[in-house]
Amino acid sequence: MAEVSEACDDCGLRFPLRQGSELCPKCVKLKPHWHAIDSAEYTELQKWPQCTVCGVTRRNMPVSTHSAQTCGSSLCTKAGTPTGEETPAPLGPSLVANAAFETNQNRAALMRDRMKRFQATKNGGAPGTALTTATLQEHEHGGGAPGEPKIWVCWQVRLSSQPKVIAAGLGYHTKGWAVSKFMPGHTGMVAGNTPDIKAEITKIINTEWCQNRSSPLLAEEVDFRWHGNRILDPGTHTLPLNDFYAHYSTPSNAPIYLQNVPTHWKSFERTRGSKRFICMELYVRVDKRDLKVRKWEERVLESDSEKSSSRKRARTLSSASTSVKQPRLSVPGSNFSLSRRTTATDIKKWSPITFRKIKCITDDVDGAPKLIEEEVMRGRIFDEPFSSGTMKHAHDLIMANGDQFVAKRFFKLSDDSDADSVTVQENRLEIEGELLRLAWGRWFLNGFYQFCKKQREVDVDENAFLALTEEVDLPSIASGVPIITDKDIGMTWLVERKRPMTVTKYSGTLVHTSARKDLRSLTICAFAHFAFGFSDQSIVFADLQGSPAQVRGGDGLVLFDLMAHTQNGDCGIGDFGKQGIESFTRDHQCNSICSALGFDTQYPLKPRSSRNTRSSRRTQEEPESDDSDDDEDEDQLEDELQRESDDNN
């Protein structure tokens, strides 16, 4: 007979003959359901009787004939009987039920107390547990569809302050992601429910990072690198995982990047079986991050000093700076072990869909858009949206050739919770408005880069030729339309190529300031100024945002969901008319690129007292320009942008 056994780490109960330590057998069964203690599964498991001697629990355990519930084994029967002999008179069912009920109530109380202790703090803003059904399925499938192949990513962390060594204190991890997931290697925040691989890894690193630091890492402060601190090849930062792996698995690259496995991952290589994997490093640019934190603290101090009393203002900057600290990030953790089962909830339903492709072209001279109907296309659209904003649903769309797209439609035309549903005709008008804004944006952006005569840094959606489509066959479930007759039009969709979920915002609807000083941000800010001036102050592009993507075979940025303010205020949702244009003239501050291109003088932000036509303005400006001025502007631009020559021109 063993000595007094250890108590269960969760329920605190002791079982004399229990084997092992930590959790008792019943708590082991309950553990997978800790994220939902009020669920039917958890409640059912609570009802199962448990042997008070060894701790075993079964659904159909026989009713005990002794003074305590046992599993029926000879050892437990003897240990559970005070005299060591069987008692002829059985314990009444009601007494057994009451004893089990009391045990379960105690266990539930302990469990609730445990959940309260691990609840997220107010500042954390996260639920007590992240183990929702959707989260677990997302983890099990690697962020892709059920059954989609995976590639395993092994990673360690390297700090720019100590670039020759691995930051062992930040841990090392391995995780499998679906091959359709995007890396990506560029900066930005994450939109939607499926962050990209780098954003997910950054979140995992923050679990350790925030133990000794006041603020979490941002994805824009971290870069992907190969093991050994090798920089990624140009044009591979924004690839999907499958394409990323394919690029580095060529005969010339594989020996360097894939087959040259670091010592730390040798054991994983031996046990991986047929798994494909890559060994990466997350390079944290500590210097850039610390500079940003110091600037943030200085702004906080400046703001606090303005609001404080004269006594508080007398405090020195050095003493105050030591007290400024952001709330520590509360990150929920779990030891949950994922099962490999597949249930009906894993299956994403889709419907066949037939499109008539509508192409949008713009006049080279005045930018006037035209819609042209083209061929009919077929594909599959998922019934449920993968993401929903305040007014639009976004559905996954797979064309007949296997290309992946995203199809968007409106379901509301305002952000009011009680707004009416959108009709097919209303949706078509708004989708056409979005397409026209994209076409205008592309036209102005082309003019901007022609003026710059430089390699393109950003681009509006290169796939705009597939941006507007209309269902012409039976309506899909995703459209929400019950039936299409000969007199009806089909649901109109804005279709874009699927890209990373990472989004970088450069301006808001009525806010046009930006604290970013990188070349790409400065370029986009200058583009907004160009469109304002080149249109003779008749249009302002707002809510500028983009995702990293492949642009003409290299890493670039694709702008999407453009809003615009026009003089007439008739450009669709988000057009605030003259008020919106005035917000740009109020907020915009010319940067170095604006100045180098002469926008601060050629396109003044002050509203014109009397508006001239474009032709008269151009007539007045043309005599003032000559070839020498153009050459001087080009030299200035080359020095300012520090860009390579455009190989495509």
TrEMBL record:
Taxonomic superkingdom: Eukaryota
One Pfam family in the UniProt entry: Alpha_kinase
Alphabetic keyword roster: ATP-binding, Kinase, Nucleotide-binding, Serine/threonine-protein kinase, Transferase
Biased composition (Basic and acidic residues): 640-649
Compositional bias ranges of the Polar residues kind: 316-325
Start-end of Basic residues biased regions: 608-617
Region feature (Disordered): 302-332, 605-649
Transmembrane segments: none
UniProt keyword annotation of Transmembrane helix present: no
GO molecular function list: ATP binding; protein serine/threonine kinase activity
InterPro entries: a-kinase_dom, Alpha-type_PK, Kinase-like_dom_sf
Alpha-type protein kinase domain location: 342-602
Acidic residues: bias regions: 622-639
Name recorded for this polypeptide: Kinase-like domain-containing protein
Organism listed in the record: Mycena pura
